[in-house]
Amino acid sequence: MSTHGGGHEGIALHWYLPTAGESRSFQNGGTNVHVPVELQTDAGFRAPSLSYLSQVALGLEETGFESVLVPTGSYCEDPWVVASALVARTSTLRFLVALHPRTTTPALTAHQAASFQRLSGGRLALNVVTGEPGAEARRHGDTGDKTAQYKRTDEFLSVVRALGAGETVDVVGEYYSVEGATIASARRPAPAVAPEVWFGGSSDQALPVAGAHADVYLSWLEPLDQLAEKIDRVRSAAAAFGREPRFGVRSWVLARETDDEAFAAAEDHLAGLDDQRLAATRPLLLGRQSVGQQRGQALLEHADHRDPQSLRIARNLWGGFGLLAGGPALGFVGGYAAIADRFEEFAALGVTDFILSGFPNLEESRWVGEGIIPELRRRGLSRH
């Protein structure tokens, strides 16, 4: 069983911080939306300034979100810098800081995490992202295949967790070698509660690493039956290590008073979508080596933006976001009560944590925070 901190009962909602900037219009860019250079415009674009990101973070805290995911990648601002700036402007919001093992060392990460825990009063969790082979990996000198990348992640997390527990570590590994590494001393012991490790990956290489290290196993949103099979495999992998992780999903969301209002707003996101742009974007999304991405995009094989029904993959699960955006292919779309119903169904499967994002994040977080969170509380389902 994990010894890391964090509540285990009830549903908790988390949000996504737009550290690459975003637009009011879905088609004009923002969270993982690819916009061809010739179509890019500054009209309506919101730069990821400290002021704007603070507005998002303070709104999340005010409406009752548990934490915010601070993404990582060369396309966005550095997550440690952003989280460190915002932790001083907030009081209770937790920060789920994403990081790639290929861009850092386990000793440095453990040191950063311990400092953040001490200075924030324990408001840190780590989202460890293995990634996939490709251009982003090569920017950091990572030319390994998927098997090599997950071996590195396994080594990385083994050292980070040992250091976080206050141990002194001597390891000669394939990817990391450390001698006498520690983050603790008599006057500065390791934090009493180490940050949770959130980890995702749908490939055969990922599941043993998830079983060994994940406090929260994170998947892209998938239909219940498809996700259930994956959760069973992760549970089996974790049981081999005597562990029981929580489960979470990463998803888009569009919530309104009623289903009709929500789906109308969702379909507005695709209004006027140019077929040529779609034809240029789809191969980029379909060519990803991430198994999780492939599983999601396969659900959109017969989706057509001109046919609204083809985008309704399951009840209140909409595939329109995945036509242009990387990340989760599906999103929750519907009225507050209907989405709360879906959350209950996922919770029955074992999914209790939902990392959500919308377009734009500032406004959509208020729809969710002022509509869905109160609904979950009325039902006695909220963790807090």
Q: Give the biggest sheet.
A: 8 strands, parallel, barrel
Task: Tell me the radius of gyration.
Answer: 20 Å
What is the CATH superfamily label?
Luciferase-like domain
Number of domains: 1
Number of helices: 12
Give the strand tally.
15
Terminus-to-terminus distance: 22 Å
General shape? globular
Strand arrangement within the widest β-sheet reads 1-4-5-6-9-10-11-15
CATH architecture: Alpha-Beta Barrel
CATH top level label? Alpha Beta
Structural class based on helices, strands and sheet pairing? alpha/beta
What attributes characterize this protein structure?
8-stranded parallel β-barrel, single chain, 12 helices, disordered N terminus, alpha/beta, two-stranded antiparallel sheet, globular, 39% helix, 384 residues, TIM Barrel
Please provide a written account of the structure.
By secondary structure, this protein is an alpha/beta fold. It has a single domain, classed as TIM Barrel, CATH 3.20.20. The protein is 39% helix and 18% strand. The chain has twelve helices and 15 strands. The protein has an eight-stranded parallel β-barrel, surrounded by nine helices. A two-stranded antiparallel ribbon has the order 2-3. Helix 3 packs across helix 5, helix 5 packs parallel to helix 6 and helix 11 crosses helix 12. The longest helix is centred in the middle third of the chain and has 19 residues. The chain is globular and about 60 Å long. The protein starts with 11 loop residues before the first strand and ends in a 6-residue tail after the last helix. The N terminus is likely disordered.
